[in-house]
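Continuing from the previous page of notes. For each protein in this section, the sequence appears first, followed by its structure tokens. Read the first protein now.
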Amino acid sequence: MRVVVADDAALFREGVARLLTDAGFEVTGKVGDAQALLELVRADPPDVVIVDIRMPPGFTTEGLDAARELRETHPGVGVLVLSAHVEPHYALRLLDSDARGAGYLLKERVTDLGELADAVRRVAAGGLVIDPGVVAQLVGRKRVDDPLEALSEREREVLSVMAEGRSNQGICERLFLSPKTVEAYVGSVFTKLGLHQGPDDNRRVLAVLAYLRR
């Protein structure tokens, strides 16, 4: 699998590239700004782009903007945006109603090679990846007449893992539950929140995120 890494910090960029190489990925490009990233992808599209949310020259949302542009111009290229901070509004900007092959991960997760490799593979396969820290903030925020209060503690756990972009099998593995038990919890969560499960895992995740962002 071919991956491009974009980050203005050379040491971080080289570190991520080394981790990916050790995990069996082919790093085909390393760049330090969003414009160079766009030009590189146009010339030789990879399977996945990993990009810092803040890039030169303004260090605001250049990386995020580049990721969103690539989703439009190169829909077959997965994009994984990295951030140093939990910023749910940026994560949600990356994911719209047609989102596929996109993810938002905190930079601190990159030190876990297994988690990084898993995120890259899921994005490359067209899945969605949301950092657990973002999900926790969305689930944990207080709202007037909060419908989440109707969920049991286990149902909240299932909802949180689901919102990260995990399939039912992924929920089974994370929470050590059987497939039938997970199916029951997922059905209960959607019933209590008045949501439709959708035809695929991405639709299910987008429905949950749309609900949590309200």
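Done with the first. The second protein uses the same format. Note its length before scrolling.
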Amino acid sequence: MRILASAAIIAALAALAACQSKPSAPAQQGGKSSALRNMEVVAKAAHRCWFASGDAAFRSYSFANELNSFTGRPRFLLVPRGNFGGRPLLVVQAEGNAGQVSAFGPMLDGPTGSRVAGDVDRWRRGDQSCG
């Protein structure tokens, strides 16, 4: 009788295990979203090429890194130099499952706008050169 009861319990547990839902999406590499991975690449290139290099076109701006955003839109901002609370002149962010990178802000309409757009586009495609 014990063998029959044990077999019934094992069968019931096996049936319950079969009913468990499977994860709907594969686990993300390293726990990072696609948006965060893409923005890390773009932000590192922007900092290296525009700021660490001493590029004169970017001397009047500060780089405000907001990659640890809880909104699902990691981003970085360019703000007036030394004014991290100031209105952003450029926002570069990524969002969505594919981590689509976009840039917007008044800086894109200025003299460096086409260069900035070209740099961001090149970096989001994986080319890390400074142009």
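What the second structure shows: Residues 4-8, 11-28 have pLDDT under 50 and may be disordered. Strands lie at 61-66, 75-80, 90-95, 100-104. We return to this in next week's lecture.
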